[in-house]
Design the sequence.
């Protein structure tokens, strides 16, 4: 079957990364029936116009400009919905603009995995070019409501201290007052990256959604701006009895945090950005947990 495969690349500020990411697809993917959607997430440096200038004449590429920064989830959802309703995609891969694909059979391997054993979401082997760490599968965190509420309180404290440039003291000293060793977060075992695994938590920089997922959802949970998306996806996977697969045979490179570092190049500003958005996302996650309880799922 000639499946339609769509890559969604979320662009923000770092034009060099986006160009490298998109070119890695164009130059390497050995599969005809694919498209690329580039979503400019309201880049303040007007780099979305450069994206148009670079790629507008390529028939495989669709460019969407958002008037404002919608955040990670909603920005990706712009591309997801276009891929779903306008392109009728069978597979949608949400990849960060700081990722690089070198496998020519990247798409074919994903399709083979789906045909052999159906999945809703697939995660490839994600190799960090910064430290050489394999980022999939992820450790199970934030699946415990008590842990989540406690961490929100901790990040409120860190955010307050950040305004006085004192928050890094907590990180450096690892004071026990900010940890709760008695909180159990579930399975504490992270599978080796060499092993194919099912029903695991996946890294958010590269996710592949099959038509089994596409038919049911409009993309990612939309109430976060940035952070906790991986934990929320895994929560929904467990709640709705979906199937995730981690496949070490499918590979992608990840340069990590380039957009955030381009905007918040000073440590304390980057940490402040993280604290604020962790708190917002944590509250949204708690709302989702409460809604789930009320609906009896």
Sequence:
């Amino acid at each position: 079957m000639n499946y339609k495969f769509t890559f969604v690349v979320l662009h923000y500020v770092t034009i060099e990364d986006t160009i490298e990411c998109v070119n890695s697809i164009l130059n390497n993917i050995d599969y005809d029936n694919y498209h690329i959607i580039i979503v400019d997430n309201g880049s303040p440096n007007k780099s979305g116009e450069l994206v148009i200038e670079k790629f507008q004449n390529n028939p495989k590429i669709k460019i969407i400009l958002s008037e404002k920064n919608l955040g990670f989830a909603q920005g990706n959802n712009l591309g997801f919905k276009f891929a779903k309703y306008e392109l009728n995609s069978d597979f949608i891969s949400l990849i960060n603009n700081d990722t690089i694909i070198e496998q020519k059979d990247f798409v074919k391997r994903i399709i083979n995995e789906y045909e052999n054993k159906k999945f809703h979401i697939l995660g490839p082997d994600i190799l960090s070019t910064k430290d050489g760490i394999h980022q999939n599968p992820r450790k199970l965190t934030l699946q415990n409501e008590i842990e989540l509420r406690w961490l929100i309180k901790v990040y409120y404290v860190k955010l307050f201290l950040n305004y006085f440039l004192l928050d890094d003291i907590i990180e450096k000293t690892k004071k026990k007052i900010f940890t709760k060793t008695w909180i159990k977060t579930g399975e504490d075992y992270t599978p080796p990256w060499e092993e194919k695994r099912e029903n695991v938590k996946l890294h958010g920089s590269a996710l592949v959604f099959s038509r089994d997922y596409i038919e049911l959802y409009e993309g990612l949970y939309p109430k976060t701006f940035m952070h906790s998306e991986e934990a929320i996806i895994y929560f929904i996977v467990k709640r709705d009895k979906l199937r995730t697969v981690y496949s070490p045979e499918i590979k992608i490179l990840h340069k990590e945090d380039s957009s955030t570092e381009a905007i918040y190049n000073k440590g304390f500003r980057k940490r402040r950005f993280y604290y604020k958005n962790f708190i917002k996302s944590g509250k949204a996650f708690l709302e989702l947990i409460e809604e789930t309880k009320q609906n009896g799922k």
In short: Residues 267-294 form the longest helix (28 residues). The first strand starts at residue 5 and ends at 11. The mean pLDDT is 89.
